[in-house]
Specification:
It holds the Pfam family TctB. The chain crosses the membrane at residues 9-27, 42-62, 74-92, 98-118, 125-147. This protein is mostly helical. The longest helix is centred in the middle third of the chain and has 35 residues, at 76-110. It has 4 helices and no strands. The protein has helices at residues 6-26, 41-61, 76-110, 118-139. It has 2 domains: 6-62; 76-137, no CATH class. The radius of gyration is 21 Å and the shape is flat.
């Protein structure tokens, strides 16, 4: 067997490692049964399924039908923008409220894309602000500050 698709190979390795890691960690919780699930049941089986999917992707990368690809140089800028936007969101949520925080999260993380478009990023941000409000505040009844705390509009 020859490695033909490096992207699929390393994706498979990552899925297998994450899946087995989650399954291993979940096994320290009470498992229960399918009829009466314990706190470790769902994450354990989710980890196993993730590892199996990773194995399928990995084996597919060794197939003669796989397209030959290469893995580009690791781009730390993208990692910094995506992870940094989530960290920034965590810091500004209480101060600026969910509306502005989600908007900032989406626009900053969108900068990581090679096809960045401000118009698309703003449209996505508006959609996710509305979705977050409807799903989490209205649907689930979670209590989040909606507007900046210094405006007193909550």
């Amino acid at each position: 067997m020859q490695l033909r698709n490096r992207q699929d190979f390393w994706s498979g390795v990552m899925f297998i490692a994450l899946g087995l890691g989650f399954a291993w960690q979940a096994s320290s919780y009470q498992m229960g049964t399918a009829a009466r699930m314990g706190p470790g049941y769902f994450p354990f089986w989710l980890g196993i399924v993730l590892a199996l999917l990773g194995a399928i992707v990995l084996l597919g990368s060794l197939s003669k039908k796989a397209h030959e690809t290469h893995v580009d140089k690791f781009d730390w800028r993208i990692v910094f923008l995506v992870v940094g936007s989530v960290v920034l969101y965590g810091f500004i949520l209480k101060l600026l409220g969910i509306y502005i925080s989600v908007f900032v999260l989406v626009v900053v993380s969108s900068l990581a894309s090679h096809e960045f478009s401000l118009k698309v990023a703003v449209a996505n941000a508006i959609f996710l602000v509305v979705f977050s409000y409807l799903a989490f505040v209205k649907g689930l009844g979670l209590i989040f500050p909606l507007w900046p705390s210094f405006l007193g509009m909550n």
